[in-house]
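DUF177 domain-containing protein
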Amino acid sequence: MFDTRELGRRPGALKRVSRSVVAPKGLGIEVIGVREGTTIELDLRLESVMEGVLVTGTARAPLTGECVRCLESLERELEVDFQEMYSYPDADDRSREADTGDDAEEEDMLFLEADLFDLEPVLRDAVVLALPLQPVCRDDCPGLCADCGARLADDPGHHHESADIRWAALQGLAETMRDGEKENAPRERGDDSQEK
Ligand SMILES: [Zn+2]
Ligand SMILES: [Zn+2]
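Predicted structure tokens:
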């Protein structure tokens, strides 16, 4: 909650506020977000206008997430701008009297409550919109091996043909069925490439 009392109601009055807040729960999406309890740095500019207080600001926070390709954890800095109008409660009364049927319009409006405004919903929307939907540890992350799940960035030369895995599995099965009878290890397939 932020206080606007010092700002006063004279249109044109300006106030700058810098504050660190503790990140609330659930500020993010499944793959990336601001971890609960980390610090969000806020720089706000409050401007008194006729109908209320116009809040313009920037938020900076550390992001933690997971690369969608290789599942490696990753960290980013988030910086996001936002702007929101908080109307005086009496402006609400006036608009209610003026047009009673316009529910959608009213739901979108935010109001000052006893000269305080709640930045959390605004911050939440701004942060979630600014998050990468498909965060990657690096732009050219090669992801995981589709066959064995190895992280390809750690092992650039990694490759094997899927047929070999199946072959090895069959071989293993055959060995089990022979019940102890010694068999040769699966032959190396050499370089003849077998795409699946
Ligand atoms: Zn990655
Ligand atoms: Zn592999």
